[in-house]
Amino acid sequence: MENNKTVILKDLTANPAPLGLLGFGLTTVLLNIHNAGFYPINSMILAMGIAYGGIAQILACGMEFKKGNTFGTVAFGSYGLFWWSFVLLIILPKLNLAVAPDKLSLAAYLFMWGLFTLVMFFGTLKLSRGLQVVFFSLAVLFFLLALGDITGNATITLIAGYEGIFTGFAAIYVGLAQVLNETYGKELLPT
Predict the structure, then answer these.
(1) What residues contact residue 133 under an 8 Å CB cut-off, 6+ apart?
(2) % pLDDT > 90, the chain
(3) Is the pTM of this model over 0.85?
(4) CB-based contacts of 53, cutoff 8 Å, min separation 6
(5) Inter-axis angle of helices 129-151 and 103-124, to 10 degrees?
(6) H or E element: which one contains 55?
């Protein structure tokens, strides 16, 4: 006698994207308030870069991996480690463990992140409009910051700061929209 049974697996794990988006968004806003000239780099930005920008996105990366989401895994893992590398760029020279990057190397660093983000933006064309805004504005931010460093033009960096504040708030919006939409079981905030 043959005993055929159908097994249905249901994913009961939480959506990790809001955690990653909020870790990215809040940290990005705070860093770019600095780029817009309101305060210097300080321990608040470094702590956010390590903890919420870094660790939260790396945790989201692992959760996206378990869900089989390659885009989320690569995005959150990469940007979480971006924040750690950014903090290390600042801390290592202060600890006399490395020479501070010059403007050319920092521009190359930012340009490569812009290029990576631009390619990831094309992946968002199959996803939500909100993510398209986040990734496109982030690519623009990286390119503006690279241009500001390579030219030494403080006005470009200032513009990048305001553009980065927009980018961060866009990510915050998408992350909070996902939380509220899932909590209420309907689309309260479009993404």
Answers:
(1) 170, 174
(2) 94
(3) yes
(4) 23, 24, 26, 27, 28, 79, 80, 83
(5) 160
(6) none
